[in-house]
Amino acid sequence: MIEKLSYSLAVKIHDANPDKKESVDVLSYSLSITLNYLLVLSFSLLIGYLTNEFVDTIISMVSFIALRIFSKGYHAKSLTTCFILTTAIISLIPHVPMQDYTSVTNILNVFMVLFFAPNGSFEGEVIPQKRVYLLKGISLIIVLSNFIISSHIVALSFFAQSLLLLPKRR
């Protein structure tokens, strides 16, 4: 869905541009990534608003994305699947009553990030060892920050992202 929409928009942009500097494929790719981000943002916030969990949805989204940037992890095979999964994860987290398990979840998050972050293998990315330490360190600092914040929303967001770090089965 997202890929098809991006491609049709890219063709229209390419045809309307007399200079034609970028190829349709390059335009389509960049549009698809942008559309995916905008759709996840829009639908997550809409669901949060409609379920009276708007602020917690924002907290869920920001914490999930902050850890995701540095820890990497699993990528869905299509952007449509990515949109559905990411929106579901971000939108469900504020509705899960886990206040009593924040500390336990934080500890699990630390261990998963310590052992599995960053995991670029899902993208076929080879991360230089020097950068691995940097990304792991930043990821750990992000996860450890919730021992101070002590938010069950943040803990669950980090937990969801940490699960996406687990190595793929062969």
Automatic annotation (TrEMBL):
Origin superkingdom: Bacteria
Transmembrane annotation, as ranges: 26-47, 76-94, 138-166
Keyword terms of this UniProt record: Cell membrane, Hydrolase, Membrane, Protease, Quorum sensing, Transmembrane, Transmembrane helix
SMART domains registered for this protein in UniProt: AgrB
Molecular function terms, GO-annotated: peptidase activity
GO cellular component: membrane
Gene Ontology biological process terms, A to Z: proteolysis; quorum sensing
Family annotation (Pfam families): AgrB
Protein name from the UniProt record: Accessory regulator AgrB
Organism: Brevibacillus laterosporus
